[in-house]
Amino acid sequence: MVAPIDFEKDKVDLAVQFGAGNWPGVETELLFKDLIQPVCSPKLIKSARLSELDDLKKVPLLHSHYRRTDWPDWLMAVKRPDLLANEGISFPSSVLTYQAAVEGVGVAVGQLFLLRNEIQDGTLVPLFNAPFERPMAHYVAWPKQRPLGRKARSFIHWLKGQIAESLAAAS
């Protein structure tokens, strides 16, 4: 998990943060929820014959350093914590984890909203029709003691509009 921004130290007006949205001294607005699901390349689906949960034993599970609980959370949601015995491969970032999935190295748990382009173009395929919404989300955040100005409000409005467009296009 990435540490929350320290508005006193970092001297920024706004930040996009991932978490529960209840940071001390901070106001937040929800941007999008954390909907996760295993994803992999179409090539790996075919070569490893991935069609049921037990097939995950045949391939490496790909883990992101900053999203260490994705696999445990998803496997608990589908009532298969036994599959965590597959230690898999860890990567220092989600970007590298998802790239390894695109390349057919293994199966990653993906944030569906952030991977919508790869899913739409068929580079990555969601597996098992079992998305799981975690209690965390992406938020725009700002310090409570600094009211938002017109420009910051306009930016938040624009950002939320972009996200709404992307969500509408994905469904």
UniProtKB/TrEMBL annotation:
InterPro entries linked: LysR-type_TF_proteobact-type (IPR058163), LysR_subst-bd (IPR005119)
UniProt domain LysR substrate-binding: residue ranges: 9-162
Signal peptide: none
Transmembrane parts of this sequence: none
SUPFAM superfamilies: Periplasmic binding protein-like II
Single GO BP term: DNA-templated transcription
GO MF term (any one): sequence-specific DNA binding
One Pfam family in the UniProt entry: LysR_substrate
Similarity comment: Belongs to the LysR transcriptional regulatory family.
PANTHER family with a match to the protein in the record: HTH-TYPE TRANSCRIPTIONAL REGULATOR, HTH-TYPE TRANSCRIPTIONAL REGULATOR TRPI
Protein name: LysR substrate-binding domain-containing protein
Organism: Tardiphaga robiniae
Biological classification of the source: Bacteria, Pseudomonadati, Pseudomonadota, Alphaproteobacteria, Hyphomicrobiales
